Structures are given as C-alpha cells and as structure tokens.
Amino acid sequence: MKIYDTQTAPNPRRVRMFIAEKGIQVDYVQVDIKNAENRSAEFLAKNPLGKLPVLELDDGTCISESDAICAYIEALHPFPPLLGETPLEKGIVAMWQRRLDGGLMLPVTQCFAHTTGYFKDRMTPIPAYGEEAGKEVVAFYGLLEARLADSRFITGDKFSIADIIALCAIDFARVVKLRIGEHQVNLLRWYKTVSERQSAKA
Ligand SMILES: N[C@@H](CCC(=O)N[C@@H](CS)C(=O)NCC(=O)O)C(=O)O
User: Fold this and answer.
1) Cα(14)–Cα(78) distance, rounded to whole angstroms?
2) In-domain check, residue 81
3) Residue 64 Cα, ligand 1 centroid: separation in angstroms?
4) How large is the average pLDDT for residues 176-182?
5) Which CATH number is 45's domain given?
6) How many domains does the structure of the chain reveal?
7) 123 lies in which domain range?
8) Sign of CA dihedral 100, 103, 106, 107
9) Are 44 and 101 found together in one domain?
10) In angstroms, how far is CA 57 from the centroid of its own chain?
C-alpha cells in the first residue's frame, strides 16, 4: 500500500496524522501540486478529481477522499479507535466529520485558493468569494469555542478523527492569516493539547 501525498496540504496531513495515531508505517509518494503533477493523465487515472491524498493498494485499487482512506485504515487497524466504538460514538463522530469537512476544511481551502491564486493555472480565483469563505472559517471557530467549553475533545471525552480534521484545517488557515482569537480560551486549550500529540508532527 502507498499514499500519494503532498506535504504542505491539509487533507493529506489529515491522513498522515490518522496513520501516525495508528502507529503503522505506510510508504508516501510526494506529488507536486504546485506544478499540477496531480492533473497528469497518470494521476487522473488514480483519482479523476485530481485531488490528494490517494491510497493505492498493491493490486492497483485506488481510494481517494481523506475520510474514506481513514475508514479503510480503521477497518484494517481498529486500535486505537478514531471513528468511535459504540453506535452512538460512531454517529457523533460521523456528524462532526461532516460538519468539519463542509464547515471548516472546505472554506479554509476555498479561502486559500481564491485569495492567493495558488491554483490560477487550473481555476479562476474569485477573491471576494475567498473572503466570504474566510468569514465562514472565523464563524466556525466560534462554534468550536462553544462546543469545547464543555467537551475535552470535539466529539466528547475521546480524541477522534474530528480533532485531526480540525487541527489540520486550523493550522492551514494560518497561511491565509486566519487564527484562533485570543479570547477563544477553550479552543486555544484544545489546540495546545492536540498540537502536542506526536502525530501532529506528521
Ligand atoms: N475531499 C477531498 C479534498 C481533497 C483536496 O482538496 N485536496 C487538495 C489538497 S488539500 C488538492 O489535491 N488540491 C490540488 C488541486 O486542487 O489541484 C479529501 O477529503 O481528500
């Protein structure tokens, strides 16, 4: 098994961090997204959306979408559980995965793409749209601040993939100068705890 990765991007980091939490070793192949290596015919054969990360099995089967890759890894390596153990935990984790993907990770990456023009060779940046996406990110920090006022981690007492998604999105948001507010003490407390995990270096 190998994973097509790009070191600087938040979605591939989500998968690297998940794998680090599992304590398993996987081979990574770096793909140069700045120079559109991910838009080559060879890469599009692995993921027609041209996005990273992509997991490729030894028989050539490819799985893309970060959470799908993580679900596959969790099925192979259930411990430590990062997608919930009981039916209730699984439901809560799945709910936060969807919220964080649509409400935080996507706006962060849209803000980046539309305000920096980093991908202008393959899309038309609309800076005003990027600014709006940035406002969504800031609003989501408020939601997380409220959630973390009475919860140790995002889904409850246990660390989960939700914390991984949030950390990767929040760290990447610093590229577009979006930061947790100094008044957001619960989010800052959570951020420090999660950033200090060994897997956060992945
Ligand atoms: N929903 C996808 C998003 C993947 C994604 O947007 N990947 C970005 C890097 S964070 C990418 O490959 N961008 C390169 C491009 O759009 O050309 C996932 O969860 O994996």
Assistant:
1) 17
2) no
3) 9
4) 98
5) 3.40.30.10
6) 2
7) 87-201
8) negative
9) no
10) 21
In eight-state DSSP terms, residue 182 is T
Question: Is there a domain that residue 22 lies in?
Answer: yes
Q: 133 with 114: CB under 8 angstroms?
A: yes
pLDDT per residue as tens digits for the range 43-69: 999 999 999 999 999 999 999 999 999
Enter the pTM of the model.
0.98
CB 6 within 8 A of CB 30: yes
Using the 3D structure, point to which of 42, 76, 110 is the last residue of a domain.
76
Angle at 172 (CA atoms; ends 168, 177), nearest 5 degrees: 145
**Residue 167's CATH number:** 1.20.1050.10
User: pLDDT class for 120, splitting at 50, 70, 90?
Assistant: very high
**Ligand 1 centre from 185 Cα, in Å?**
30
Arithmetic mean of pLDDT, 20-41 = 97
Same-domain status, 48 and 117: no
Tell me the residue ranges of DSSP E strands in 41-156: 54-56, 62-64
Q: Report pLDDT for 91.
A: 98
Candidates 11, 14, 37: which one to mutate for ligand 1, based on the most atoms within 8 Å of Cβ? 11
